[in-house]
Each structure stands twice: as C-alpha cells, then as structure tokens.
Amino acid sequence: MRSETSEVFANPDGTFTQETNAAPVRAQLDDGSWAPIDTTLRADSDGTIRAAATATRVSFSGGGDRQLVTVAKDGKSLDITWPSTLPKPELAGSSATYPDVLEGVDLKVTAVSTGFRQVLIVKDASAAANPDLEHLEMSVTGHGVHLQPGLDGGVAAVDDNGTKVFESPSGQMWDSTGDATSSDSDASVRKNTRRTAMAASGSALASTPASDGGSEDPSHGPTGGDKTADVDVTLAAGKLTLAPDLGLLRGKDTAFPVYIDPPVKGVVHNDWTALSSDGDHFWEWDGDKGTGYCANYAGYLCSSTPYTQRLYYEYPLTSLYGKKVLDVTFEAYQTWTFTCDRHSYDLSLVDKGISSSTRWSSRPTAIDLMGDQLVSHGRGSLCSPSQPADWVRFSDNVSGETNENLTTTVAAHVDGEKPQITFSLTPHDETSTGAWARFRDDAKLSVTYISKPAVPTPVGVQQGNAGSVCNASSEPFATSSTKPKMYATVQSADGANAQLRGQFEVWKADGSAKVWSADSPSSEWVADNAKRDAASSTALAAQTDYRMHARTQAYYKTDRGTTGTLTSAWSSWCYFRIDTERPPAPVISSSKYKPADTDPAAGGVGESGTFTFTPADEDEPSP
Q1: Which among 153, 182, 240, 357 could disulfide-bond with 170, CB atoms 3.0 to 4.6 Å apart, if both were Cys?
Q2: Which residues pair with 273 in a beta bridge?
Q3: Which residues, at least 6 apart from 112, have a Cβ–Cβ distance to it below 8 Å?
C-alpha cells in the first residue's frame, strides 16, 4: 500500500511496517506509477509551465494571459487569476518570476510538494506606496470544490462532503532588516549571506563567518532580524483578497525588499511547522529549517537578533487502529550543524496538536522524552573526518535507557484510538548556538505491527462428514458421536502474512465446568481464513448437553527478537448434546391402510393413502 506520504511493507517475519513521512516524498503520475517529488518547472508545448512531480498538481501561466495558476488533486482543482495580463516568467528551478506585475513589484511563484507558494517582492518604498497593494484581489474558481473561510484564518476549498482539499492559510510578510550589515565587531556578518563556517577537526572554527545554514534566497521566508507581520486573506464573491500590513509595508524603518507570501496548498494528512520566539512561523515549510538557539557562538553569528526555534511534526494514527504496535522509530534528516562537535537532540511528545494558526505563544509543551541522539551531520568535508548530511534515528534503547518509550507511547495512542500524535525536535541545550542544526521536512515515523486477530467465523460442531452447525441453547444440535469435531475458521486482516491458530473450549452447557480445550494446530501456524478442527481425546459423557466456542490466536516476532501472541475475542457459544440412545420405531397410522392383524385388508396396488408417523414415548437403550 502506498500514498504520497505513507508506505506499508510486509516483513519476512509476518509483521508489517508502515513508514509515514511528514511531508510528501512521492507523487502519482498520470499512468498510475509513482515518482519521487520533483518540483522542477518545465514549459509544455502550449506554453503552460508545470511542476514535474508533486503531490498536488501545479501549473503556472506561461505569460500573455491572466490565469496565474491551477492546482489539482483527486479530480478537483482551483484556478487563480491575476488582476492583469501576466508577462512571460523567468524560470529557475522550482520558481517562475513574473517581473513588474505592478510597478516595482515582482511576482514569484514556487512549486512545492503540496502546492505552490507565491511571493510578491516589493522592491522599494516607491513601489510600496502603490494603492493597488492595499487590497490585492485575485479571482478564484473551484472545480469540484467550493470556497469558505478557513478555521484558522485564510481560505479553505472543500468538496461536497465537506472535506478540505485545498487551503490558503493566513499569509505572512517580512522585510529585509535581517539582511542589514551589523557593525558590532569584525566577526559580524550579513545575516542572510548564508555562508557556511569553515571548521577544522574537533570543535575548532575557522575564520569564515557563519549563518544559520539556510537558503540564500530571502524570498523563502523571514529570518532573525526581519520585521514580520501577518497578511489577512479573505474571500468574498469568488475574490481572494490579500491585505498586507501597511505599518510594515510603508514603515519608515522598513528595509526593502519586502516579501508578501500567501501560500496555496493541497491538504495532506500529516502536519509540520517551525515556531520561533521572535514571532516567525513556518507552517508546512518546504526543504529544511533550523532548531535551537540562533545567536552568537565563539564570535560567529547565526543571527544578529537572537531567537529560539523549535520543529514540530504530527502524524495520523487512524490507519493503525486495530493493530498491535510492536516497534516504532522516528527519523529526521539532519542537513547542517553549526559546528563539527556532536550535540544531543531530543525527540519529545508534546501536549497538543499543531495547526496553521499555532504560534510561539500558543506552542505545544514537551511532556515526555521519547529519545535522544548525540550527532553532528551536514558539514561534510569541513569536518575531519567528514560529516555528510544523514538521517538521525530515534528508537527505544530498551536495555540501556529505560526512560525511552517511543514504542509504548505510540502503542498507547493507537490503543486509545487517538487520531494523531505530535512530537517536537529540539537540541537538548537550547542556550548554545553551537547546538543549532537544520532538519528536513520529511521526518519519518516507522511503525512495525501486526493486526489484532479477528473472531473466527464460521464456528460450529461437526455435522455429517465435513459440515458444521452452531445452534442456540434452546435447540442444541444432537450428535451420537462422543468425540465430535469442533470447527473454526481463523481470521486476520494480515491475510497470507498472518501466523494463526484456532483455540477451542468445550464446557458443560450450564457453564459449571470446562470439559476440554485444544489448540489447532498445536505446534505450527496457519494463514488467514484457514479452517481448523479439534476433538477431545476422550469420550464425552453421553446424554449430556454441552457448549463450545473458539477464538483466533496470532503469533508475532519483531526484528529485535521479541516474540508473543495475541488473541481475539471468543466466538458466540454453540450448543450441542451427546445423545447415544437409539430412538424406538415410530408409531405409524393410516385411516385407509390399517394393521393386517387387527383389520381386514383394504386398498390395493397403485391406490394412494395417507400415513401418519408419531414418535414413540421413550428411547431404546443403546446396545
């Protein structure tokens, strides 16, 4: 089973593993095949610009018309139209830039795995004074969806069942204050030059100044020192209206360019966000983000205005209902660290979920440590030995660290049928910039499980050579065999991968005593839907009423060598009677054909008559 974010594997030991990435990692193509996410833009023969492979299909205008973008998912789509004719865009990787859509304002659209991001780049104060920026209207047309205000602000596109298909959360805008050069010391650097610090072996830092390790493109989002504000996104009469914060747009201390970013995305079942103490928030960001304390370290800058940032990942659990969770791991790909020294990073369960409206002031609180890892990845050959980017794996160290309980925590959430689970990823030390690190958006939760076995069906007592019957207590099935077979067909959602057996019990009908029990097979295991049977090795007492039931037992063995069994609920009772007495000959009567020893002959060959059979009063004893 496979989706944009999730994949299920059958393991040789009979278990299954479900791997769920927070962000989409694959997209389904037109021919039904799957391909890795590829947001590279290419122009079609008709001039339309399309992303190669994204979970939500994205196409942009090639210029010369007003239809800016179409997003499509599951047969439903949204068309967004710009107020005026668009110029031919300049393509660069995943982005298309339409120059001067307003005087001094460029429009940059970027394909991401879940949809697209659009950023208005206001180049200077003169451009910011344009009254068209105060309320920028775009037409939105839905196909198979209708638009409504989002619960967290912004706009949602829902289908006829009320299911959200696309969303445009409340936008965000920021200026370039963080790009300004600091003059505090010779070690000060431009915040967003994004140059990587040279590092020798151990903890030594070379003389090249450092940043937070992120993208060099300031249109990707605000960083430390940038002034930020929310952008109101409203909907009325098919018009999507953006209302930037004019205090920031036209402030006397505003540093240009100013970036205005209202994203539009297809809805995925997983969520992720980055929250900063300086007010920045990055809902379902694309690529990687930093976590920790971003400030000054040993004279090298992460940010000229210190802030703390935390990463949060949320995963749905409904697909695991009815499963026995055996083992859980969490992996996040570390792309960059501030130094070559290893630092400890904590994966923690938090007390509530996240949404596009979650901010630092309403952030979840860590309530239980799931695990920690001491690592340093991403600086490559700048460290000795080299430290390439790599996955950081959190998994319970049962023998060495008994406080690590990722598996039991996820299992408890599944057993309690909680809809999702949310984690935070942070450095253990949030006071030192040396621990600042960046992780990708596609963090992966892997859950190994087996399905809990189902009640066997059908269940019954042998009837004839191979049939079975299950009667109620009011009409117990009568059998003359003192060793009748009991039948049950074992059941599991794991199909051929399941390892099952039937378990049988026979009791006195009044429940006063269990007569016998058996497993079938006794020392092996069978797959789903296998018919099993069992019989008592000693004869059951004759002329006695009994009842039987059965259940399915499942065996599992994890990749760590842990073994165990699970059992279903018992089936309903089937009642039967061991009746070995031979019934007497019935009494036969007829109004026309009477016994010859008492009545004269009557009727004749070929002449019909009516006969009544009446049971005798008592059984005859068995010979």
Answers
A1: 153
A2: 283, 312
A3: 39, 54, 94, 263, 265, 286
State whether the Cα torsion 282-288-291-295 is positive or negative. Answer: negative
Spell out the residues 6+ positions from residue 388 whose beta carbon is closer than 8 angstroms to its own. Answer: 377, 378, 380
Counting every residue written for the chain, the total comes to 623
Mean pLDDT, the chain, as a whole number?
89
Number of H helices and number of E strands within the chain? 3, 47
Closest CA to 18 of 271, 273, 312, 322: 322
The one-letter amino acid at 179 = D
Contact 203, 433 (CB under 8 A): no
- Torsion-angle region of 425 (φ positive above 0: left; ψ -120 to 50: alpha; else: beta): beta
What is the C-alpha separation between 304 and 180, in angstroms, rounded?
A: 9
pLDDT digits (tens, 9 = 90+) for 569-597: 999 999 999 999 877 788 888 888 888 78
Q: Return the structure tokens found at 382.
A: 């700048």
305/182 Cα distance (integer angstroms)? 10
* Burial (0-12, 13-18, 19+ Cβ within 10 Å), 353: middle
Helix (H), strand (E) at residue 411: helix 406-415
Q: How confident is the model at residue 51 (pLDDT cuts 50, 70, 90)?
A: very high
User: In 471-573, which ranges are E strands?
Assistant: 477-479, 486-489, 500-508, 514-520, 531-534, 544-557, 563-567
User: CB neighbours (10 Å) of residue 613?
Assistant: 9
183's CB contacts (< 8 A; 6+ apart) are none
Amino acid (one-letter) located at 31: D
Spatial neighbors of 240 by CB under 8 A, at least 6 apart, are 80, 137, 138, 139, 140, 155, 168, 233, 234
Q: Is 239 exposed, middle or buried (0-12, 13-18, 19+ CB in 10 A)?
A: middle
Nearest Cα residue to 235 out of 147, 164, 170, 169: 147
pLDDT digits (tens, 9 = 90+) for 198-253: 333 344 343 344 467 776 688 888 887 889 998 888 888 888 888 899 999 999 99
Phi and psi, residue 454, nearest 5°: -100, 160
Structure tokens at 33: 């095949």
> Can you name the residues that pair with 503 across neighbouring β-strands?
519, 551
Predicted pLDDT of residue 200? 33
The confidence score (pLDDT) of residue 222 equals 87
d(CA 320, CA 445): 12
**Exposure of 248 by Cβ count < 10 A (0-12 exposed, 13-18 middle, 19+ buried)?**
buried
Looking at residue 435, the DSSP 8-state letter turns out to be G
pLDDT of 191:
33
3-state secondary structure 127-160: HHCCHHHCCEEEEEEEECCEEEECECECEEEECC
Tell me: pLDDT of 125 over 50.
Answer: yes
Q: Chain centroid to CA 440: how far?
A: 17
